[in-house]
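Q: I'm building a small set of examples for a reading group on sequence design. Run inverse folding on the following structure and report the sequence directly after it, with nothing in between.
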């Protein structure tokens, strides 16, 4: 395992605990010397280990806070292998083990994890050989050695039709489609309406609204069919979403159960019937989750889709962040500043705010800044002014259009969206929170963490604990 190459040094320099991470990798190399290093992509520039355990090809992604956070583990079968879904492996090859759930460095290490993996896979082999029709045992395990990957970004999606699919025919789904269709109509007729660049530069070529029967949120899809908006297709078949660049999921399947957990479980069950199909039909798409509760449902969608976390995001606090920045700059600072503020954390009363540099390009070195004693009163006043505004369908629809626009145009604009928070600011749990992320054609990239005030940090930690505990109650 070569750790002295320039690409490796460059990526390792971004790790929060670089020296400890190198020491851990050196220990791993002594026990498993066949591990190799190559390049690949996951959520950002991250180390990723592909090797073999019990003669099975495995891949371990190491977050930038490794080794204090656990790796994300997958089986990587060859074309003539088949995955056997079971207790420790899902249908897409994601590995779930007690050692991952209870990770606690230095007690936990990759070497110890691989030992546990070997023991579990001996009890319940997760891979078999596809039948070739020549009488060979289809359950025969294959010996395969893979490699360790390191990335500087992924492949660009194929250029072509910019297709956006909206799943869910309720008020929110209708609002998302109507706002996007307004953009298309405005572009088609070259209107001179006084609207911003979002409307003047629509990248959407085709819109699809899918009104699925599982959703309890139904609306005016018949009206869309009657009035036949240009470039808008209405369907009840998920296959109509095939080839989308962005898939927006607004559907909710609320039940009449009394407990909150039971109500959310109904949504989770609906997702299990649609998310895997959506991911299969549009494997390079960005999944934008708007179903409620968005922090939990984005986490569920990521688990069920098995897409990288860069491509599964939630609407999160994008709307609140845009509102707060507007209020701060227009109402309170009288246009004397171009400050950007982002609301982060759980979509609840535990949200907190951070400052950031202005501009939309990642090349402008956007960084987050904590709220200080001098800026805290300003932030609090801005948040107070926003109380009671709520999230109406049309306002959330505008936020959806804003996020979609950044993805389709590779705008590299920063949004506070729901994303995998594990590894950010020392968060060790696998939870999804709203964090500032740069959005583009390759999905999302988180901005680096920032020191929070003790009060704000306590709110964030409370949200992490609450979301993590609640997620364990769900049947994914």
């Amino acid at each position: 395992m070569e750790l002295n190459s320039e690409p490796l040094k460059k990526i390792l320099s971004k790790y929060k605990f670089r020296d400890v991470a190198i020491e851990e990798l050196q220990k791993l190399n002594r026990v498993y010397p066949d591990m190799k290093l190559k390049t690949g992509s996951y959520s950002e520039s991250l180390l990723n280990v592909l090797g073999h355990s019990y003669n099975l090809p495995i891949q371990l992604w190491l977050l930038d806070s490794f080794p204090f956070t656990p790796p994300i583990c997958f089986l990587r079968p060859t074309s003539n292998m088949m995955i056997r879904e079971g207790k420790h492996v899902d249908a897409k090859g994601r590995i779930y083990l007690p050692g991952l759930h209870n990770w606690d460095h230095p007690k936990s290490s990759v070497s110890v994890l691989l030992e546990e993996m070997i023991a579990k896979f001996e009890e319940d082999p997760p891979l078999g050989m596809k039948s070739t029709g020549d009488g060979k045992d289809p359950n025969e395990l294959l010996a395969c050695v893979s490699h360790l990957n390191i990335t500087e970004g992924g492949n660009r999606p194929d250029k072509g039709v910019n297709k956006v699919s909206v799943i869910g025919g309720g008020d929110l789904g209708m609002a998302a489609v109507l706002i996007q269709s307004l953009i298309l109509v405005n572009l088609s007729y070259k209107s001179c309406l006084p609207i911003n660049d979002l409307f003047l530069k629509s990248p959407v070529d085709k819109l699809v609204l899918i009104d699925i029967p599982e959703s309890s949120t139904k609306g005016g899809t018949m009206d869309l069919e009657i009035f036949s908006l240009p470039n808008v297709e209405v369907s009840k078949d998920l296959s109509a979403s095939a080839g989308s660049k962005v898939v927006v999921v607004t559907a909710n399947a609320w039940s009449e159960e009394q407990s909150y957990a039971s109500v959310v479980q109904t949504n989770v069950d609906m997702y299990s019937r649609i998310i895997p199909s959506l991911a299969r039909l549009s494997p390079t798409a960005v999944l934008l989750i708007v179903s409620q509760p968005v922090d939990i449902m984005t986490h569920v969608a990521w688990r069920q889709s098995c897409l990288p976390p860069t491509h599964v995001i939630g609407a999160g606090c994008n709307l609140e962040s845009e509102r707060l920045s507007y209020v701060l700059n227009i109402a309170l600072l009288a246009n004397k500043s171009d400050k950007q503020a982002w609301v982060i954390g759980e979509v609840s009363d535990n949200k907190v705010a951070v400052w950031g540099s202005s501009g939309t390009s990642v090349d402008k070195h956007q960084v987050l800044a904590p709220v200080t004693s001098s800026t805290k009163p300003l932030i609090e006043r801005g948040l107070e002014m926003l109380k009671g505004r709520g999230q109406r369908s049309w306002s959330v629809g505008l936020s959806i259009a804003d996020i979609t626009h950044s993805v389709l145009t590779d705008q590299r604009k920063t949004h506070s969206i729901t994303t995998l928070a594990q590894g950010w600011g020392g968060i060790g749990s696998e939870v999804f929170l709203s964090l500032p992320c740069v959005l583009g054609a390759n999905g999302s990239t988180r901005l680096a963490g920032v020191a929070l005030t003790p009060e704000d940090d306590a709110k964030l930690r409370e949200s992490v604990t609450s979301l993590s505990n609640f997620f364990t109650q769900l049947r994914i």
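Confidence is low (pLDDT under 50) at residues 134-159, 184-200, 358-365.
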